[in-house]
Design goal:
The chain is mainly β. It contains 2 helices and 32 strands.
Length: 416
């Protein structure tokens, strides 16, 4: 039942991401003209806007939404480098919709903490959404705290598929050339960071934290995005540490520590029509601790889209008591919402696992569960040495319909 629950939650997350995608496509119809300069905006190049001097209160109680809205309007209308300064303190806000294009480059310097309102009636969708902005930076040592514990009990997605989605904490839509560094994302109501239609965004030295049993609190999710770099980041949540959705290309994940959570996942793939390929993904020098999956690729057997997942490299990965260290699941079918033994349309090929070491909490350290109709091809396993840490069973691999080569692996894990 626990496994079914995990699969069920992942399907919900995928549905939420695609629902958000439809809404965001509608936003593209808005004018692309730069935001008009509000009264009092600085006309010269460069400027700094201090939230506490615009009426924001860092007392952890007073709603400071208006101050942030004013700061964004002035910063986005200003030229040169504009900085929104959040000084030390706890600033409570409702939904923040930061929309561009902007005239200059905008930096949000987060020295204090942002607290998401616990009044769900204020939110139509997400908490902080940044739309159509180029050259954006969010830096500092402060926290973006969704205050999720106060509302997680209202998440009904474990009980029904058609559930109300709680607000994501930080959403970047159509953002080009972005940097998120140093900050902490804490206890999101739903996803912590969601990237959609973004290009050349780097997440570096970020911490993402939520309890292992918190519902649908993915650390970082991306879809239809290119050139995304996640570097030296620590993630522990109640769902995927990182989830890579359809349409992702040129993804680099390096130096990430994951746990608790569901691992680093690609997919689900094929759930909806018109999904795009996933290609050129590198996961390197990462550590996974006590997660329910390690590195995972999952697709629906009755896929609604024809797409390809290819050119993935997983290298120098340390597994520490991970339940499914290496898993390709082309028969993903959570809670019977799909048709088993369907006509798979997802191709998975050219996948390399190199120097994967450590321990598994289950005997099946490697699971390649590929489709009879479209087998996995070009799978390379070099120096895969993950051992079951228990005593009653031996380390093993389950490899169905997978074609490739294996060198330097534990003999129990040499699928080919």
């Amino acid at each position: 039942m626990a496994i079914l629950r995990v699969l069920f939650l992942m399907a919900v997350v995928c549905a939420a991401a695609h629902a958000a995608k439809d809404a965001k496509e509608d936003k593209k119809k808005d004018s692309d003209a730069p935001a008009a300069a509000p009264e009092g905006a600085e006309s010269g190049p460069g400027g700094s806007l201090d939230i506490s001097k615009l009426g924001g209160s860092g007392d952890g109680k007073t709603d400071s939404t208006k101050a942030f809205d004013e700061a964004w309007a002035k910063a986005c209308a200003g030229t040169g480098k504009q900085t929104i300064l959040v000084p030390k303190g706890d600033y409570v806000t409702g939904p923040l919709n930061f929309t561009g294009p902007c005239k200059g480059d905008v930096t949000i310097q987060l020295d204090g903490n942002l607290l998401g309102s616990t009044d769900l009636a204020k939110f139509k969708s997400n908490w902080i959404e940044i739309l159509r902005v180029d050259n954006l930076a969010i830096t500092g040592k402060g926290k973006i705290d969704g205050q999720g514990p106060s509302v997680w009990s209202k998440n009904s997605c474990a009980k029904k598929y058609d559930c109300k989605i709680l607000p994501n904490s930080l959403v970047l839509d159509f953002v080009n050339n972005g940097l998120i560094s140093g900050i902490t994302l804490l206890n999101s109501k739903f996803f912590h960071l969601n990237l959609y239609k973004c290009k050349n965004v780097t997440v570096k030295d970020v911490t993402v934290t939520a309890p292992g049993d918190s519902p649908n609190t993915d650390g970082i999710h991306m879809g239809d995005s290119t050139q995304i770099n996640i570097i030296d980041t620590t993630i522990g949540t109640g769902d995927d540490c990182i989830s890579i959705g359809p349409g992702s290309e040129g993804i680099n994940i390096t130096g990430v520590t994951c746990g608790p959570g569901h691992g680093i996942s690609v997919g689900s793939l094929g759930r909806y029509k018109d999904e795009k390929d996933v290609t050129d993904v590198t996961v390197k020098d990462c550590t996974l601790k006590k997660t329910s999956n390690g590195v995972r690729i999952k697709s629906y057997e009755d896929a609604a889209s024809t797409l390809t997942a290819s050119k993935f490299t997983y290298e120098n990965i340390e597994m520490d008591d991970v339940a499914n260290p290496i898993i390709i699941d082309m028969k993903y079918c959570p809670n019977k919402i799909c048709t088993a033994n369907g006509n798979s349309k997802v191709t998975i090929k050219d996948i390399t696992f190199k120097n994967i070491t450590g321990t598994s909490s289950t005997p099946e350290a490697v699971s390649l569960l590929c489709s009879e109709k479209l087998p996995c091809s070009g799978v390379t396993m070099n120096d895969v040495k993950v051992e079951y840490k228990g005593t009653n069973n031996k380390t093993m691999a389950v490899c169905n319909n997978a074609k490739g080569t294996a060198t330097g692996c534990l003999k129990e894990l040499a699928c080919f």
